Amino acid sequence: MYFLTGWPRRLLCPLKSEEEPFHIQPNSQRFYFAVLSETQLSIWFSRPSVLIVSYIESVKAAAQFGFYQQAEWKPDDSMIAVAVSNATSLILVIVSSPLSYLHVPFAGSPRVKVTPEEQCAPALSLEMKRPIDLEAPITSIKSLQEDLLVSTADGYLHILHWDGVSNGRKAISLCTVPFSLDLQSARGGPSLDLEGLYIRDMEYCVTLDGFAVVLDDGRLGFISPVASRFTAEQLQGVWAADVTDGTCVAVNNKYRLMAFGCASGSVLVYMIDTTTGSMQLSHKLELTPKHFPDVWNKTGSVKLIRWSPDYSVAMVTWECGGLSLWSVFGAHLICTLGEDFAYRSDGTKKDPIKISSMCWGAEGYHLWVITSREEAELVENMEEAPPPTQTKQAGILQFHFIKSALTVNPCTSNQEQVLLHGEDRLYLTCGDPTQVPSSSSDGPHTPHPHNLAHGLEGSPLHHRSAPSPNSISQGLSTLLGHKHWHVVQIHSTYLESNWPIRFAAIDTAGQCIAVAGRRGFAHYSMSTRKWKLFGNITQEQNMTVTGGLAWWNDFVVVACYNFTDRQEELRLYLRSSNLDNAFASVTKLHSDTLLLNVFRDLIVLFRADCSIFLYSIERRHDGPNPSACVELLQEVSMSRYIPHPALVVSVTLTSVRTETGIALKAPQQACMAESIMLNLAGQLIMLQRDRSGPQVREKEDQKKLLPFCPPVVLAQCVENVWTTCRSNKKKRHLLEALWLSCGEAGMKVWLPLFPRDHRKPHSFLSRRIMLPFHINIYPLAVLFEDALVLGASNETVLYDGLQGPREGREPLEVAFPYCTVERTSQIYLHHILRQLLVRNLGEQALLLAQSCAALPYFPHVMELMVHVVLEEEATSREPIPDPLLPTVAKFITEFPLFLQTIVHCARKTEYALWNYLFAAVGNPKDLFEECLMAQDLDTAASYLIILQNMEVPAVSRQHATLLFNTALEQGKWDLCRHMIRFLKAIGSGEMETPPPTPTTQEPSSTGGFEFFRNRSISLSQSVDGIAAGKFNLQKTFSMPSGSERWSKDSDCAENMYIDMMLWRHARHLLEQVRLKDLGCFSAQLGFELIGWLCRERTRVARLDDFVMALKCLHKDFLWPFPVIPACSTSSPFKDGHRKTGEGNFSTLSLTQSELEHISMELANKGPHKSQVQLR
């Protein structure tokens, strides 16, 4: 959502002053910032961040009015109200802007020619108007549209006109406002318990039309007018129950939330119940002991809360210092009270930064922070000693942020890329199109080549015969191939005249990006690495994007306002043409557009009159360049359901529907626009097409669209929604689902349920089910077919060791770590499978898992599901009446990787949980034998470790022998070497009880195996069924050292036991005249072949059939047979022992010397002649 980047920047005031700034207040557009010190009012500009003008109070006036305390801007930026400490006065300062500019060289490219207006900050002048006496100390001031609301310490609310005329004042006593827990039980008379109380902090909420207030006794409330104006007879208030430690408040207009800071250090976020009017607790923002155990109850009370300009995140600071960032519904993003923010590289603890005031900059790219007085002195001492001519005023820090494009442009047409934008650059997760390998139908990792002009490639995981332009899906190797971002610098010419960037959008293929600032827009191609800007600067400056940007094939779809015609318009620009209005398709609109989205060949617009318009787009080739034809299809009025148009966060067209027989529909109908999803202040509302009325056949009227049913609320606390317009028969569960991000509640998926094998669905079975699950990252994109969530996270790097302290002073880069943003991803499939099994929907879970079995990380999904369920159930303190682990085990047996999944999970789990695991999945001896039958020796070796820790040595020796013999026969030499070490470490294998845990243990040097310690456990199984002639084998840790080393006799017995098995295998090879395998066996395992051959000279090494042996040699080493000369007419073998179609060959009679010569040839030409010698 929002991510810190780089180091904070320090802003130095050029004026000489001993006063430190302590309060900062932005104007409505956040281009100007009023900074207060005790007797000085300064106006700063946003870009460049410079001081424009400063007003210094005279000594006489300062003695009369006291020091400055608070400031508030008039909405049109023409006036500033300043509250002073010396009791009762409010000073109004007139801000005038002459047509001139300060000369401030802009930090851009010197080769770019810009006008003075673009590189300079505007010049302002400040003039004090007469003060207004309010007869009591001022506690809070807030701007209320054309009025100014001031609360005073005598318990009054003063409503003033900004022009300050005497007859424009109203005073409302707090005691006359009736308060209750809800509006239904409001009392008629005034509240008696408000005597002597006053409002400590307040903030106006436009969408709730009222004020959230914090009283000086810590109680929280909400005051709203009965009518449209504030008068004494028309105000009413509601309490927040059981809260008496409130300190501050901030309201969220987009989501209709009120965040109250408390003395306990937590933030309580309230909402207003629409039926009763009461204040209901929505969620809490608090640091948990799980993530920050050392700062629990050490933060102090909440000092400030600031919502970002787009209301998607909230920044919180405390009295004891520190900053923390949460999403609107409580997902924790950043905290400076832990890790590298709180500790130096040597482990010493830093003091947290203490903040006296802070505010967000334009579009949330900066956080302006004024540190407290002692903090400013500390940081000032960290800096280099300034020259005598430089001012020693410090204390303003500027933190830099990059944010997700979803916060301001929630289009769902490009959901498989993560797009972040900062104030001057973009961060993308898409790959380089020039480095994409050729596609293949059987490679799960293979990405497809991007066809930039037409976009005609299907998903890399599932190729389709007739892909559509909207069926593009990037491959795993493209989206997950590396951890680096693709960073695109925004064109400096466009940026300098149109900063800040307000919207950004990326196309489905991830190869084209469009950005829009204050005026106009520009787009960038990843293939050419070039920006396209308006050739006519007048056209650029005559339009501003209002409803966002989106891509439709190779067209940019823009909802904008035309300043020349004073008209709202919908425009489509072709990417390949010049960026000019002559090549644009323009559609006039009758109302302001707030949101825009694209679904296949449809555009959906949400307008300021709370209506939704659907347009169709059609590509035409009626000229030299392709054009787009836009036609209005349908209008849906939502004014009955939407109280304020600013509350709509996103609008989405989807193919999601809930009607009966969903699985029996044709696949292409699954891609039609079936419903509208509306995120209304966190409530996800669904409008589904009404199919209950008389149907109109498509052949008669193709343009006839069905009306929509009344809206239905699907979920609460929704931050983002993901859906796709693609279809895939094999993965219908994932592609036809709806994915939701819900803040601290994690994610939710609205999953369709299909009857198996097209059977008739059960009448009691719902068509869809909402499944919640938690993930460890903040989701920014969903890879639908790949069952992955993509996100980003903040990482920090310390640089305090690069530069030593200079006379006790450190630079700012040492006080803060360098912040970077890392790409993250997480698998979610195991959560969904588990939720389905919990709800006895095993058949649906099996269908879903089978559709994803080809994913490369599917085995990991199975392991995660077993591991999570095992950890929860085996460590539960309470008995579990209906355990899930047996169900999960039975579910996994449906897949061929069942054996690997169980043993890998066991190897990664504590030994104490093994009994619970294998009680559910089966005896490890039976699982080991299944591995041997399936010829899966590596998995069987892993089960050997389980047996060695759970069974007596005789049992593990038996199974180890079976595995060793099988590995010898199959030539698995690495496994054989591990088996030899394993057998030598068994020790006295005759013990019928598990060996005790050794006190010392040498580290294992086997490399491929992780050896567990032996543990003393009680065993219920006995050693039975040990077949005669079978040996035992087992894999354990290395030989203990010191006093635990086995005796010499036992060691000799183990060596003899291993040698007997090796001799037996060598005899078997020699009997079959497999000399090549015998040589490999000797070289790989260090078998003393020559000495063994000498001992076996008169037994198995004795050669009885020379002809058969020589034939086997030639066959084994692929050597040609000797050729009979052509003049020979007879063969010594009358019976024709060897006949071929190419000619007559025969073996020759060999003397003893010739046989020795062939033996030497064998030794010299064999595969390991340095290790094999024959005599």
TrEMBL record:
Alphabetized UniProt keyword annotations: Membrane
Pfam families assigned to the protein according to its UniProt record, in alphabetical order: Beta-prop_RIC1_2nd (PF25440), RIC1 (PF07064)
GO annotation, biological process: intracellular protein transport; retrograde transport, endosome to Golgi
Domain RIC1 C-terminal alpha solenoid region: 830-988
GO cellular component, one term: Golgi membrane
Compartment(s) where it occurs, according to its Swiss-Prot or TrEMBL record: Membrane
Top-level taxon: Eukaryota
Spans annotated as Disordered: 431-473
Protein name as it appears in the record: Protein RIC1 homolog
Species in which this protein is naturally found: Oncorhynchus mykiss (Rainbow trout)
